[in-house]
Design a protein that fits this description.
With 301 residues, the protein is mostly helical. It has one domain (29-300). Helices cover 76% and strands 0% of the residues. The protein has helices at residues 12-35, 41-63, 71-95, 101-108, 111-122, 130-147, 157-175, 178-182, 186-208, 219-247, 249-252, 255-270, 277-294, 296-300. The longest helix is centred in the C-terminal third of the chain and has 29 residues, at 219-247. The chain starts with 11 loop residues before the first helix and ends with a helix.
Length: 301
């Protein structure tokens, strides 16, 4: 599978976008942690993609962007929505009903490990180099260190669910490469995939959660859902597809190494949590992993 040659060395602009994206997605674990107190998983996921779709289409209409008319493009939207939203969002939110948001974000950081392997197998221009393989291993080790001793205890199915989401994200990063050759605007791509996800998830949510029987959620839950949809989904996916088009699937998946860092920093700032020695050590390892995968230091040497 090949979807056009791209520059796989990231520039300063791509790194800046990647860091912003990590903050938006790091916040998503916090928002989900708030929402699951009042809402069941499928309802959270469906509201997330549905509100994000409404937000993105409103922006598209206001800015006058060209809408895709090809059936091939909409088939791709459904494929991307299935791999990048419907499956991983549902697995992560369900996992967070049993494990903490920090633990879930750490497990999610395994995505680049899967991504290096899957992109290397399926994309001819993203073959895994020794530096990328070593970097993936170092970054994953940093993510494990950040959670600390005893953090892996608890339910086994919930961690496996989040790892399944990480694997699905890796496939989505490869699958999403096709949108560059299809010539679809990144914002339209983001809107198309969350719209497709909403269409797929809504019937399941109505049958399983029966939302009309639920109590009215509190103000904190409503605010968390709005932030989850508008910031951590709508805005985040605009950045996601821009980075994917310019830097490739493997580089894009580096964001999952940064998400635990963002999640812990947000916890310290918003919830008053204090960072310990293990967190700083983990951040250092993650930074080293990013440098190794980026490869420019090795190229210069």
């Amino acid at each position: 599978m090949q979807a056009g040659k791209i520059n796989t060395v990231m520039g300063p602009r791509d790194w800046a976008l990647l860091i912003i994206l990590s903050v938006l997605w790091g916040g998503s674990f916090f928002f989900v942690e708030v929402a699951i107190r009042d809402l069941p998983p499928l309802t959270i996921v469906t509201l997330r993609v549905g509100l994000a779709a409404a937000t993105l289409w409103a922006v598209i209409l206001v800015t006058g962007r060209k809408l895709p008319r090809s059936g091939r493009v909409w088939v791709a939207f459904f494929g991307m929505g299935f791999l990048n939203n419907a499956i991983p969002f549902s697995l992560i939110v369900w996992g967070q009903t049993q494990i903490s948001s920090g633990y879930a974000s750490i497990l999610n950081a395994t995505t680049p490990m899967f991504g290096v392997l899957i992109a290397g197998l399926l994309l001819s221009d993203e073959r895994p180099t020794p530096a990328k393989l070593v970097g993936a291993g170092i970054g994953f080790a940093g993510a494990v260190v950040m959670i600390g001793p005893g953090g892996m205890s608890g339910q086994i199915l919930a961690p496996l669910a989040v790892l399944g989401a990480a694997l699905t994200y890796a496939f989505a990063g490869v699958y999403g490469r096709r949108f560059k050759t299809l010539g679809v605007d990144p914002m339209v791509t983001a809107a198309g995939q969350v719209t497709a996800s909403t269409i797929m998830l809504c019937p399941l949510m109505l049958v399983i959660d029966r939302p009309w029987t639920l109590a009215m959620p509190g103000g904190a839950t409503l605010a968390a859902m709005i932030c989850l949809a508008v910031l951590s989904t709508a805005l985040a996916y605009i950045l996601y597809f821009r980075i994917l088009a310019s830097s490739g699937a493997t580089n894009l998946l580096l964001v999952t190494f940064l998400i635990p860092v963002s999640a812990i920093l947000l916890g310290a700032l918003v919830l008053g949590e204090r960072l310990g020695t293990l967190q700083f050590a983990g951040m250092a390892l993650i930074g080293l992993g990013l440098v190794a995968i980026d490869g420019r230091v090795f190229d210069r040497r």
